[in-house]
Amino acid sequence: MASRSSSRRRKTLPKPSLELTWWSRLSDTQQHLIIAAFFVVLSFAFFAPIHFGGKTLIGSDIVQWRGMAEVMIKYREATGEEPLWNPNAFGGMPGYLISYPNLVPQIDTLLGWLRKLIWPSSHFIVLLLGAYWLFFYISRDKLSSVLGACAYGLTTYIPVILVAGHNTKFIALAFVPYLVLAFAHTMRKPGLLASLLFAIAAAANIRAGHVQITYYVSFLIGIWWIIEGIWAVRDKTLPTFLKGTAWLVLGSVLALLMVAQPYLAIWEYKQFTIRGAASAARGGLDWSYAMRWSQGISELLTLLIAGAFGGGSQEAYWGPKPFTAGPHYIGGIALALAIIAALRVRKRPAIAFTLAAIVMTLFALGRHAAWINRFMFEHFPLFSSFRAPETWMVMVVFALAGLAVFGLWYLTTGDATEEATTERMRIALATFGGLATLVVLFILLKGSLFRFERPGEFQQVVQAVAQQSGVSPSDPRVYAAAERYLSDIREKRADMFNRDAIRTLIFLLLGGGLFWLYFQRRIGRVLLQVALVLLVTIDLWGVDRRYFNDEALQPKRAIERTIPEYDFDRFIKQRIQEAGGAGHFRVLPLALNPLNNAQPVYHYEAIAGYHGAKLRNFQIFVDSVLFARGMNRPDPRALDMLNVRYIIAQDTLPGTRVVFQSQTGLLVLENPDYLPRAYIVGRYEVIASEDSVLHRLRAPDFDPRTTVILPEKPAIEPVPIDSASIAEVELKKYTPREIQLHVRTDAPRLLVLSEVYYPAGWKAYVDGQEVPIYRANYLFRAIPVPEGEHEVVLRFEPASHRIGYLMSLISTLLVYGTVLSLVGVSYLKKHKSTK
User: Fold this and answer.
1) Which helix (H) or strand (E) holds 661?
2) In the beta sheet, which residues pair with residue 771?
3) Which of 8, 335, 485, 538 has the smallest number of CB atoms closer than 10 Å to its CB?
4) Which range of residues forms the domain containing residue 173?
5) Is 224 within a domain?
6) Is there a domain that residue 570 lies in?
7) Helix, strand, coil: what percent of the chain each, to 5?
8) Sign of the four-CA dihedral 684, 687, 691, 695
9) pLDDT mean over 797-811
10) DSSP label at 624?
């Protein structure tokens, strides 16, 4: 009797009355094509204001980039040669991270051409297709994979970075699924072709120009690789695992060779930057700087409730970061499915995604999880090279999107008996119901759970009110005004929290309701999946539109037209023409936030710019000499050494004179004592210690016009200059790659150039013979010149550029040629077999 009862319970349930039967009648190819068409329509619909509305994305970072890159772009267009050096920014610096294109064509080059026509859909479609392809490869479930692709592609971080102008980051994220897919394929079917495909995918991801993303996805791959190794030991398939690992190693080596240009030069450059191997005391990324943008622990709630910690504006956001452009939102439905997969699915990719999501969330917490991040920061290779730990969250979302695929697959695939269906229904309703209950509790208890106020915000408001009112911060009226202001702000933030919590609750109830209908056999599997895809898309689309909207877009125009040219810019450019062109003097735009503003660099050579990896010696010179001990006014002798003739300022400065008054209210001050770009001295001091050099540069008795500080004794013994001496320098040519000077001196002396010292590529020649370049006055260059008239030439000839190009060219031809050969041979074999 019991046996018959059990048999009745386990019988397969009848098919539902409502199902999309037409989908099931399509072939696999037709289904894939329809899904691809959906992604194309989704992309063009989402970016319709750009493609059809005459709008464009010109984020602040894009404008800053164009300002930095302009001099290099003009040189490239005029000569057909790569500039490699940027003479306009920060007194001169390598241009590898400004405008240094990939010179060897690879598969991403095709997308580069397409980008000119339909950006950003050119790469957004690739992102969606790649995510779908990966998720389908590991789940074999098409519509579940569509949901995962939409969850990853429409996560709020994507439009946020596009609006901000972080294009290289977006491109790198577009290639992430392909890199993970190539890894999964190599582990499943190890071989030469799989290894080469991994190399191609890895090279494309790295060439996107945002290595931080490549570094982060490598952690996900590494965790997955460990899971594969554990499985191999358990299933006694270790030889296959080791074979796959060997092919991955080969693919990784080939990928690094394929990106030798531009990364060999970039790696060389990194050692001389604030992100290099220097100690924190010397300008390297220290802990506090790198961890400023740490994701708050409670801020993880934004995965579920988009506006839990405010929006993208400074006023609305109340989290622990200095500010943020928007949340890392994936939505309640995708998050619920991800939780189900993490708890119930025991497939290797799902386990890897689960562990990766946990580990990378800890990394995203930064200083809030110092117990792990401090160790990683101090000991794990390259971990300390990147700031903004919250960026890890985009890879957390990627892992959650993959888990959502497995969650939907688990609930809709497999055993259709009563027991299995009941179990899956219980899990689905419990998860969706549990999250919905949690959201309801947040709505009811938000006042006791959250303050809706940033850490230290009250004191900041007090200081601002006191400054505006001209009274003491301790005045009771200031405290009252600050409290009234914050009370209003807290109420607005609480309202936003409440609205978005209700919004999430609605989507959770709709998702849970769909599953209830499915398990009650009212709707079929395909209809359920399609409905969930639409709900996830609508949910994320709605939040994305808060950041990608008309206010974030501009009328379509060239980027350079967004960079203003003021009357003081025109005045200075006229003086440059009168002086004979570039290479004669620099400008310090003191009133224009010079160390975080590239717009002046667009127009002329300046002590200014916008860059995350400044040269370390420049940054230290600025901090220790130009603005010594935190002074607001620049040091006059530092200005002289930097060849600064004009200063854009709000007020006058000692030792300068006003030569132009702008309609903006700013002044152009002339520094009459500025040193030429190149001049001759007859005295030197040898000081090896950097600290001692910086101290000496600040000494009252140091005169850079007559004496230069060197780290070692020069090759010649210079003769001091007096009133009867001949010591003349004429600038003949000045370009990013070459400086030509005509020098006359009646005795051996030292030629000092107000050019930033960079040993990895600059070479000096006197009458065609190479001579050493010494580091002069900490930041600049000095060259020994003998008595007489001489032609002095300095050329930027970095071996890393030349060698990197050859390595990339040879390895690319080898990899792509071998892939084409293997595919061709396989096709011919199949063709013969078919005949």
Assistant:
1) strand 657-661
2) 764
3) 8
4) 15-46+102-554
5) yes
6) no
7) 60, 10, 30
8) negative
9) 97
10) I
